[in-house]
């Protein structure tokens, strides 16, 4: 009977080892996915920052053009 108990224990230990191995592989896959997502997040953040800078530059250009147009319209009104 003790041989049967030892065999059951051995089977349970082997199942635990197999489960641990599978979990370790899953952890490695998740780490790789996490690193990939981190790199992707960094790229998106950099792209967003570049777009925000371009947007600010375009707004400044727009404001400058509006000011020029107002100035020209003011000069036209002075002539009339």
From TrEMBL:
One of its GO terms (cellular component) is cytoplasm. It is found in: Cytoplasm. Transmembrane segments: none annotated. Pfam families: ZapB. Residues 6-68 form a coiled coil. Keywords: Cell cycle, Cell division, Coiled coil, Cytoplasm, Septation. InterPro entries: Cell_div_ZapB. It comes from the Bacteria. One of its GO terms (biological process) is division septum assembly. Its main location: cytoplasm. Gene3D superfamilies: 1.20.5.340. Homodimer. The ends of the coiled-coil dimer bind to each other, forming polymers. Interacts with FtsZ. Belongs to the ZapB family. HAMAP family: ZapB. Non-essential, abundant cell division factor that is required for proper Z-ring formation. It is recruited early to the divisome by direct interaction with FtsZ, stimulating Z-ring assembly and thereby promoting cell division earlier in the cell cycle. Its recruitment to the Z-ring requires functional FtsA or ZipA. This is Cell division protein ZapB.
């Amino acid at each position: 009977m003790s041989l049967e108990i030892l065999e059951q224990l051995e089977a349970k230990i082997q199942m635990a080892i197999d489960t641990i191995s599978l979990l370790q592989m899953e952890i490695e896959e998740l780490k790789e996915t996490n690193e990939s997502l981190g790199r992707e997040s960094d790229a998106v953040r950099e792209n967003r920052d570049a777009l925000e800078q371009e947007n600010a530059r375009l707004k400044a250009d727009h404001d400058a053009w509006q000011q020029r147009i107002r100035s020209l319209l003011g000069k036209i009104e002075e002539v009339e």
